[in-house]
Amino acid sequence: MKNRILYLLFLSLPAQLVSAQANTDPSNYFVYGILAIAVILFLGLVVQVSDNLLNIEAKRLGAEETGANFSIFPRLNELFAPQAPAYANGAPFAMIRRGFDILLEGEAEKTIDTSIQANTFALQPANFIGMSPIPKVEVEPGQNVKAGDVLFYDKKRPEVKYVAPVSGEVIAVNRGEKRSIKEVVILADKNIQYRAIPAFDLENATREALVEFLQEYGGWALINQRPFDVIPDKDDLPRDIFISTFDTAPLAPDMGLAVKGRGAAFQRGLDVLGKLTEGKVYLGLDARGEVPPSEVFTKATGVEKVWFKGKHPAGNVGIQIHHIRPITPNDKVWTLTVQDVITLGALFTEQRFNAERVVALTGAELKKPVYVRTYLGANIGNLLKNNLANNHVRMISGDVLSGAQKTAEEFLNFRDDQVTVIEEGDDYEMFGWLKPRFVPSASRALPSFLFPDTHFKPNTNTNGEHRAFVVTGQYESVLPMDIYPQHLFKAIVTNDFEKMEGLGIHELSEEDVALCEFVCTSKQPLQAILREGLEIIREQS
After folding, report:
1. Of 62, 423, 500, 502, whose CA is between 20 and 30 Å from 254?
2. Collapsing DSSP states into helix, strand and coil, what is residue 466?
3. What is the model's pTM?
4. What digits encode the pLDDT tens for the residues 343-364?
5. How far is CA 453 from CA 97, 316, 460, 490, in A?
6. Rounded to 5 degrees, what are φ and ψ at 369?
7. d(CA 110, CA 358)
């Protein structure tokens, strides 16, 4: 009835306007005002109903999961959102507002030092989560192998082969606790020899044939599946695939150097990934600089490009997934590093397993922080030979937040393309907690926040001890995700399976919470806690 009255009033408006030419009685202005309000209400009702119908249809089709705005009205954050740089050319853009940049001394010069060469390399089974501690080793000391030859495979999944990154002589199969296989070590040839790989017709082959090809020739082990960060099963079909083309961790390498001259292999790798998913391949691009990143990234085809700007951890692929299309408990998504994509593509463009890597040697305790060109799993001591400022240092495979401590006899982890060397912090200051300290910190209680552009020389001191696990709100200030990390970690500690899932554990990996661990007043080992929770969920799945 109400809608019918509004409709009649709307139809009578033209007649009232005509009669106004002959009747200028002031009382008619009241009628005009009522009619105007009725028209506005009617139009508002139509718009509101249309908006509701759009959102209902988006929900029915599942499109709302993409995070896109299907409303007629813009969101508040869309009205006041920062503008993307001009070189983004209107592509999707996300501003990461939470986070913290840790500025350290020892950034590598943007040149590749060809004089630094490693001569021993290793593949480490422990780098692959979920693998049996004692995989089936296919080689023995004294045997010669070519790059791409099978070194070992998981007894639970024998179809997935893990292959040699270089050619040479197998000089050791080192064992760890309970006779687990720690590493298979190869003394590399001066000129790398490669296992011949047959040509593959990517355009006409089936997905099943492609999967079998990748498993046999080492490409499948380059793929990381979230949640849990495991190598996918052969029947796993990813919802989407994500690649971050930049890293915001302390002293992180510039991926523009890594892809220089390797653009064809990178693009072919993207083409291969597009064949492996029915969803999309997303490329996270760096919008922080005044100039665009490498054209290898900006001109890539067959992918959905999304630009990101903000402080660390804006470059983490997990953060980018959250802001593009978050992971739900039933989802499986794949991620790869830029250099993994290049190696994947080289299987098709070069017909060989080319595990070449550009690695950044960083840290204030190096005489000369530089980039080197080497191969996957290079020996740490070889890379740092004659380059240490002193011997009282800690060597890290990766960055200072999420990397792994190593010795000179050990090797780069499978997915790492950075070595960081910092001072070993085993000294103690009397009443150090009472003195104003000039150290990298997200807290405004220290004077360092007054000098945001200062680069610090760090050490490994934690500047505190293990304390009660209290609610502080610090994690939320640096983790740009719509989850409650403090509650999640407490759910893991108490082994509350349902709360872990409900609080978003599937979206996280260790690198995503590394910054939370850095700012934690309670000095909790959050990355270890998260991995414990992920393993609990994985075993129950």
Report:
1. 423
2. coil
3. 0.85
4. 999 999 999 999 999 999 999 9
5. 18, 22, 21, 35
6. -70, 125
7. 11
